[in-house]
Amino acid sequence: MSTIEVTGPADGTATVRAQGAPEAADLAAALAGATTGASTVLLDLTGVDHFTTEAVAVLIPQLKGAGCRVIVAASAAVEGKFTRLGLGGLVAPSTEFRTRADRSD
């Protein structure tokens, strides 16, 4: 069983909290909803015990094109999945993703 909870935005911050094994489509919808009207999104994946390649596929573009700052807290399962896919530097506890406009490069 999996759950995805979206709260906020309150004071410009929304939270997306996933637990279990979130479906890729559900995660994408939750992130799309959370990034609307929020300047910061806290993406809490610490309760995720199974993360599919499909979920990774929807997560990366959502993070990079969110239009707001996204702060990710990841479980060992999420970190492991990204590492196995050669994306270990993208998601780790407290990693911050910024929009292209926020980057200095």
Layout of helices and strands, plus pairs?
Elements: E1 3-10, E2 13-20, H1 24-35, E3 40-48, H2 53-64, E4 69-74, H3 76-84, E5 95-97
Parallel strand pairs: 2-3, 3-4
Antiparallel strand pairs: 1-2, 4-5
Helix pairs in contact: 1-2
Describe the protein.
The longest helix has 12 residues, at 24-35. Helix content is 31%, strand content 32%. Strand 1 (3-10) and strand 2 (13-20) form a beta hairpin. The protein has helices at residues 24-35, 53-64, 76-84, and strands spanning 3-10, 13-20, 40-48, 69-74, 95-97. Helix 1 (24-35) runs parallel beside helix 2. It has a five-stranded mixed β-sheet with strand order 1-2-3-4-5. It has a single domain, classed as STAS domain (Transcription Regulator spoIIAA, 2-Layer Sandwich). The protein contains three helices and five strands, in the order ββαβαβαβ. By secondary structure, the protein is an alpha/beta fold. InterPro entries: STAS_dom_sf. This is Anti-anti-sigma factor.
Domain module count: 1
CATH architecture: 2-Layer Sandwich
The ordered H/E elements are EEHEHEHE
Structural class: alpha/beta
Runs in which pLDDT lies below 50 for 5 or more consecutive residues are: 92-105
User: CATH topology, anyone?
Assistant: Transcription Regulator spoIIAA
Cα gyration radius (Å): 13 Å
The count of strands amounts to 5
- So what's the overall shape? globular
Taking strands numbered 1, 2, ... along the chain, how are they ordered across the largest sheet? 1-2-3-4-5
Distance between the termini: 41 Å
Which CATH class?
Answer: Alpha Beta
Instruction: Please give the largest β-sheet.
Output: 5 strands, mixed
Strand content: 25-35%
Oligomeric state of the chains? single chain
Number of helices: 3
Protein name: Anti-anti-sigma factor
